[in-house]
Amino acid sequence: MVKIHHLNCVEIQSPVGRAIGHCLLLETENRLILIDAGVGLIDTQQPNERIGNELIDMVGFRFNEEWTAIRQIEGLGLNPKSVTDCIVSHLDNDHIGGLADFPNATIHVGIEEYDNYQSGNPRYLKTPLSHNPQIETYKQSDDNWSGFEARRIDLRLDMDIFLIPLFGHTYGHCGVAIKYMNKWLFYVGDAYYLRVELEDTVHPVNELAKMRADDNELRIETLNRIRKLVTEHPEIDVFGYHDIEEYNKFKGYGNREV
Ligand SMILES: [Zn+2]
Asked: Is residue 114 one of the residues assigned to a domain?
């Protein structure tokens, strides 16, 4: 039996509006699994040392200890020490700052993303992984999920979880597909910042997404594949990391059981 909680662990006031960090917490009887981790406790205590003024101003981060995943897990009456695994879409710091709060958790990430991180790409910060967590990487696979390449993550749960390559935002950016209550959830990370990008290609957020992409052509190709999926499979719940409207729609999923 697994419960899924939707947590917002980021607050950003950007030039194109408010952005959040929509993380998922999978609760089983004796373990917790986090999908993306938001801003961490140490980030809120030492933002300049951990993230740096320049990036904070550029992105528009706001900090509050109560918004971190660890404090929200405690708030649910759960033990943060039970977080055994964290699946991450990519290694930008607004997605992994919180990993340091779960030092014993294994990190699950696509191999291309980890290689990109190790290659010295200046977009990444070293601080979020400076606690040297155990890292498990996932290689290219022949498996297919709804027309997308799918890399199975085996967490010994009675549940299908796949890492889905959605490259472009970063070279190794992935989404996560989860079967929950007989329905597929498809978390697309930063494949789009705001859902509006699927319909409105002149919205100012498109420019920001283009600017932040490692490979913009690949990002657009990925976006087109998501558009197609959303059209052909309205039964699949698709959502990204930063969109507050999507988050508000999903909050009600918390505490439901699979
Ligand atoms: Zn992001």
From this structure: yes
The answer as to whether 21 is a domain residue is yes
Contact 63, 77 (CB under 8 A): no
Q: Dump pLDDT digits (tens) for 146-158.
A: 999 999 999 999 8
pLDDT of residue 252 exceeding 70: no
Ligand 1 centre to CA of 240 (Å) is 9
How many angstroms separate the alpha carbon of residue 65 from the centre of ligand 1? 19
DSSP assignment string, 199-230: T-TTSTHHHHHHHH-SSHHHHHHHHHHHHHHH
Establish if 195 belongs to a structural domain: yes
For residue 178, the CA-to-ligand 1 centroid distance in Å is 20
> d(Cα 88, Cα 95) in Å, to the nearest integer?
7
Look at residue 258 and tell me if it is in a domain.
no
Q: What is the distance between the alpha carbons of residues 109 and 198, in angstroms, rounded to a whole number? A: 25
Integer angstrom CA distances of residue 125 from 78, 143, 202? 29, 32, 31
Question: Residue 136 has which token pair?
Answer: 């498990």
Nearest alpha-carbon partner for 117 in 140, 88, 141: 88
Domain that holds residue 136: 3-253
Whichever domain contains 75, its CATH number is 3.60.15.10
Longest alpha-carbon distance in the chain: 47
Domain count, the chain: 1
Q: Are strands 174-180 and 183-187 parallel, antiparallel or unpaired?
A: antiparallel
What tens digit of pLDDT does each residue of 90-126 get?
A: 999 999 999 999 999 999 999 999 999 999 999 999 9
91 CA → ligand 1 middle, Å: 9
User: What is the Å distance from ligand 1's center to 216 Cα?
Assistant: 15
From 125, 121, 155, 151, select the one nearest 139 (Cα to Cα).
Answer: 151
